[in-house]
Fold:
Amino acid sequence: MEYKKGKVLRKTANYRELYFYRKSDALYQLTVVFCRRFLPAYGDRTVDQMVQAARSGKQNIVEGSEAGMTSSESELKLLNVARSSIQELREDFSDYLRRHNLPVWDSHHRRSADLRQFCHDHNDYADFEPMAERLCDEELANLCLTLCHQIDYLMVPYLEKLEKSFVTEGGIKERMHAARTGYRQGQDEEMQALRDQVAALEKENRQLREQLAEKPENPKKP
Structure:
């Protein structure tokens, strides 16, 4: 998200280093496992919807980060799409728990604090993979719900920072205009410096000629 004066392309964050991207990738893979284990293989559109929402979350983070090099507006739009997809997935997991009369682990649940801390401390699917096949549907759904909440929580300040950057720096058109203006200004300043240098040399040359004109001629030798 860094921009230097005179530069058109922005330096964007490496999405693979963003915690909310890494968590979204883990969430996508956990969602695939959840749907395979606990939802019908055929005849239930919920499977496609949940997997697509999870995939949209992580993919739009990737596309938004890549687009951000040239377009702040596109980055903002795609990251907001990613956030909306994660929120949609969060609702799907909540619906599953309600339909099956299973509890959503709120802050008062005895296992909630440990689950939140584990998800806070781990970001990659490799950290969650060992438990993906052994957790029951209640446990795995609440794990995914926790990741949904944490991804959303992490994305909010990131988006606010992007919005502030967009307001202060503008989009690519504004940066191109600023770069062209800065280049022309630099050229004008360089030309003025050359004119000043030529004028100074001409003045010095004129003074030397005047000094030579005032100096008496040497007497001729007998």
